[in-house]
Design a protein that fits this description.
This protein is an alpha/beta fold. The strands form 3 sheets. The protein has a 6-stranded mixed beta sheet with strand order 2-1-5-6-10-9. It has a two-stranded antiparallel ribbon with strand order 3-4. The chain has a two-stranded parallel ribbon with strand order 7-8. Helix 5 links the parallel strand 7 and strand 8.
Length: 340
C-alpha cells in the first residue's frame, strides 16, 4: 500500500496528529500560490469537523519578510527548520529568477533548506516551483510538468526529466508537480482526495467555490474555455450526461443534444473541456464510483451499474488504471479513514 493510501493509526483511542504541510516560499513568490495550500488543506476536515492538515509557511532565509511578486511583503513566521517536521513540502513559483532557472542548480539557501527535509516526505511543486525540485534531483527519470510557457526551457535545462507539457498535474506518488498557478488548486484537491477520499476533497472545494475535480491529464491550456457570443456550447450535453451516467451513452446522442454533427461536437467539446467526450465520461464515472464506494453500502456490482460501467470487472479495470487499487481496497481504505 502506498503512503497516500495508508490509514491513520490509532493508539489508545487517540487521534493521529494532523498531517503537517510546509509551504516553502522565496523572494518573488506569487501570493496566490502561497494561499492555495492554506485554503485547500486548511479547509480539509473529517466528519467530526477536526482539521486533517496543519499548514505552515516557511522560508529558506529564516524568520521575517519575503518579497512577493506584488507591492507587498509576506511576513513569514517559520524558518527552514519547519521542513524537518513536515510530512508534505510544497514549493510555489517565484518570479525572481535564480540559478535554478538559469543554470539548473539550487541556490545555496534552497540547497540548505532541502537538506533538512526528511526522507520519504511528500514533495509538491506549483507552477515553476518545479525548477527547484528538478535542480535538487528529485525529478530525475520521472514524469513532471510546469507552466506551459516554460516547458520547452524546462526540458532543455533538465533533459533527465520526462516533461509532460499539456497536463494540469503529474502524480508520481511521493513527488507531484502542477502546471501554472490555478492548476495548483487541482493538484492540492487531488492530494486531499488521495489522502481522505472524495467527500473530504469535495467539501474543501465547495468552501473554496472551485470545481471539485479536474483530471490531471486534462489540457492545461484550453484554447477556447469561454465560447464566443451566440456560439453553441457542449454544456447542456454534459449536464444531460451527468444525470444519466448509469445508462449507455453514445457520442452521437451527446452531439444530438446540441444539434451538432459528431465531428463538430467532438471538436467543440475538446476546445471547451480539454479532453475528448469519451475520456470525460470515463472520468465522471470513476468519480461517481468513488463517491458511492465511500458513502454507500451498495455492492460492487451495484456501484458498477450506477456509475455506468455495466460490470464489476469493467469498473475494477478503470479504477485500477486511475487509482491503482481495486474497488474493494478503495472502499476499505476510506471507510477506515472516515472512522478515525
Amino acid at each position: 500500500m502506498s503512503a497516500s493510501m495508508e490509514t491513520p493509526s490509532k493508539s489508545a483511542g487517540l487521534r493521529a496528529p494532523a498531517h503537517r504541510v510546509a509551504v516553502l516560499v522565496q523572494h518573488g513568490v506569487i501570493p496566490f500560490e502561497v494561499g492555495i495550500p492554506h485554503r485547500i488543506f486548511g479547509g480539509a476536515r473529517d466528519a467530526g469537523g477536526v482539521d486533517l492538515y496543519e499548514v505552515v509557511t516557511c522560508s529558506p532565509y529564516g524568520l521575517g519578510p519575503v518579497r512577493a511578486d506584488a507591492d507587498f511583503e509576506i511576513n513569514v513566521a517559520h524558518g527552514p527548520e519547519a521542513l524537518e517536521t513536515a510530512d508534505t513540502v510544497i514549493v510555489p513559483a517565484a518570479h525572481e529568477r535564480s540559478v535554478a532557472h538559469a543554470e539548473g542548480r539550487l541556490p545555496e539557501e534552497m540547497a540548505a533548506a532541502f537538506a533538512r527535509i526528511r526522507p520519504g516526505t511528500r514533495l509538491v511543486s506549483i507552477c515553476t516551483g518545479s525548477y527547484f525540485l528538478a535542480a535538487a534531483g528529485y525529478l530525475d527519470g520521472l514524469r513532471a510538468t510546469t507552466h506551459w510557457s516554460s516547458t520547452d526551457h524546462f526540458q532543455r535545462l533538465f533533459p533527465q526529466v520526462r516533461v509532460e507539457p499539456d497536463v494540469l498535474y503529474v502524480d508520481n506518488g511521493g513527488i507531484l508537480t502542477s502546471a501554472g498557478v490555478a492548476s495548483g488548486i487541482d493538484l492540492c484537491l487531488h492530494i486531499v482526495r488521495r489522502d481522505h477520499g472524495t467527500a473530504v476533497a469535495n467539501a474543501s472545494a465547495r468552501r473554496t467555490v472551485v470545481p471539485p475535480h479536474r483530471e490531471g491529464g486534462q489540457a492545461q491550456y484550453i484554447q477556447r474555455p469561454v465560447p464566443q457570443p451566440q456560439q453553441a456550447t457542449t454544456a447542456a450535453a454534459r449536464s444531460w450526461a451527468l444525470d444519466r451516467l448509469d445508462q449507455p451513452l453514445t457520442l452521437r446522442e451527446l452531439a444530438e443534444r446540441e444539434a451538432m454533427s459528431v465531428r463538430t461536437f467532438t471538436r467543440r467539446f475538446r476546445e471547451e473541456v480539454g479532453t475528448s467526450p469519451g475520456q470525460w465520461l470515463t472520468q465522471q464515472r470513476v468519480e461517481r464510483a468513488r463517491h458511492l464506494l465511500e458513502s454507500s453500502d451498495l455492492s460492487v456490482d451495484q456501484v458498477a451499474q450506477r456509475a455506468g460501467f455495466g460490470t464489476a470487472a469493467s469498473m475494477r479495470q478503470h479504477l485500477q488504471t486511475v487509482l491503482g487499487v481495486s474497488p474493494t481496497a478503495y472502499r476499505r481504505t476510506f471507510r477506515a479513514t472516515a472512522a478515525v
